[in-house]
Automatic annotation (TrEMBL):
Keywords: CBS domain. Pfam families: CBS (PF00571), MgtE_N (PF03448), PRC (PF05239), SH3_actinomycetes (PF26205). GO terms for molecular function: magnesium ion transmembrane transporter activity. This is CBS domain-containing protein. It comes from the Bacteria. Residues 405-426 are annotated as: Disordered. SUPFAM superfamilies: CBS-domain pair, MgtE N-terminal domain-like, PRC-barrel domain. GO terms for cellular component: membrane. Residues 352-410 form the CBS domain. The keyword Isomerase does not apply.
Length: 426
């Protein structure tokens, strides 16, 4: 481990790239795996949880880590690509130990853990040697102070803490995309998922829920009070909210819909009337809709909205008023790639694709897939019998239904990809 610092603070490892000896990136650090020991012995650090490019999380033993430097981690190269599964004797330092309330043995003061330091002993073993804490009780001279203690100088990690906070784990994962944070939550215990969900802002939690398997979505939503659950559903895209509500007991679903804003609830109720694996069941009711007198500049301004998925931002839909779905008569679609080649003052109606008939809400998933493939589209309009726009189907939602139900958590490579190191090597 030549060149590594003698002490590494774990929260600073979150998201760091992991490189092989050739300088090629293997993945990113998502957590640190440790094993608790008896008495005052500091926990032994077994390895890192690394997210590789298939979004699978693998275990990288510390024996395969050759360097932990500012800004990156280096490994020997060969790693086991089998999905990481946490064992009962193991703890995830970021996921489970940050935000714990501990007691300083010398003074009896309580404090909250915001980071931990690991270091390599002369035996070459890595251990969690230091605990960084903040705030605490009256016995600290000034609340909010930060202190770093030896592992043996604090207690409280052995007990299960109810109502553990999530401030510091969220700070460590602040820059993560919603899909990556969803993967972190999926790998944690139900208790920890509930605590982290409670600490997330409504909009951020909505984004994360959209990336989670249905079982996790239902579990997290059930852990929220009813009013907050309704607020989070309002922040979700209508199609995702409808999919989630469809998994709930009828009484619970109706209670949440009643608490939602009427306009938001109306969109969701309409989507719930369609069969799941149809164009109507797959579509979102909030694509980018513009009037015929809109300019190219107007269109480009609308698709710059950061809340739009890439598929939704790839196309605009031009309709007669009203511009809320179901709209007035559908006129045509504008491909953003085409609009980028036009003068900003040009009317979108002059560069529309009017040859596509659009999908019908009862078209099957197979029909939708063939439609997108035939016309090389990432999104498509869904029209009713009167030619009004009901919504748009995007390729990401189609793939979500074509893939197996557990695609978010299943391995994307077989055991043949496993190299000479496995989870037992530590």
């Amino acid at each position: 481990m030549t060149g590594s610092p003698s002490r590494v603070y774990v929260a600073r490892l979150a998201g760091l790239p992991v490189y092989d000896p050739n300088g090629d990136q293997v993945g990113k650090v998502r957590d640190v795996v440790a094993m608790m020991r008896q008495g005052t012995q500091p926990p032994r650090v077994l390895g890192l949880v690394v997210e590789v490019f298939t979004r699978r999380r693998i275990f990288l033993p510390m024996t395969r880590v050759t360097n932990v430097d500012v800004g990156h981690v280096t490994t020997t190269g060969l790693v086991n690509m089998r999905r990481f599964e946490q064992r009962p004797t193991e703890v995830l330092v970021l996921g489970e130990m940050l935000d714990r309330t501990v007691t300083v043995l010398e003074t009896g003061a309580t404090a909250v853990v915001f980071d931990m330091a690991m270091e390599q002993w002369r035996t070459r073993d890595w251990v969690l040697s230091k605990v960084a804490v903040r705030e605490g009780g009256k016995r600290f001279r000034r609340r909010g102070q930060s202190h770093v203690f030896d592992w043996a100088d604090v207690s409280g990690f052995a007990q299960v803490e109810e109502g553990q906070g999530a401030t510091h784990i969220l700070a460590a994962f602040e820059s993560m995309k919603a899909a990556d944070l969803a993967a972190v939550l999926h790998d944690l215990s139900p208790k920890r998922r509930k605590e982290i969900a409670a600490a997330l802002e409504d909009e951020r939690l909505a984004d994360v829920l959209e990336e989670l398997p249905e079982d996790d979505q239902v579990e997290i939503l059930a852990g929220l009070d009813t009013e907050r659950a309704a607020d989070v559903l309002e922040e979700m895209s209508p199609d995702d909210a409808a999919d989630l509500i469809a998994e709930l007991p009828t009484e619970t679903a109706e209670a949440l819909l009643t608490l939602m804003e009427p306009d938001e609830a109306e969109d969701v109720r309409r989507l719930l009337t369609y069969e799941e694996r149809t164009a109507g069941g797959l579509m979102t009711s909030e694509p980018v809709i513009l009037p015929a007198d809109a300019t190219v500049a107007d269109a480009l301004a609308h698709v710059r909205n950061a809340d739009l998925s890439p598929a939704l931002a790839a196309m605009i839909y031009v309709c007669r008023p009203p511009l809320e779905t179901p709209t007035g008569r559908f006129i045509g679609i504008g491909h953003i790639q085409r609009l980028l080649r036009e003068p900003p003052s040009e009317l979108v109606s002059a560069v529309l694709d009017t040859d596509l008939d659009g999908l019908r809400p009862d078209d099957s998933l197979t029909t939708v897939s063939k439609y997108l493939a035939t016309y090389n589209l990432v999104a498509a309009p869904v029209l009713d019998d009167e030619g009004r726009l009901l919504g748009a189907v995007t390729v990401d939602d189609v793939l979500d239904h074509l893939l197996p139900d557990d695609w978010r958590e299943s391995d994307q490579h077989g055991d043949n990809d496993s190299q000479e190191v496995d989870h037992d090597a530590s």
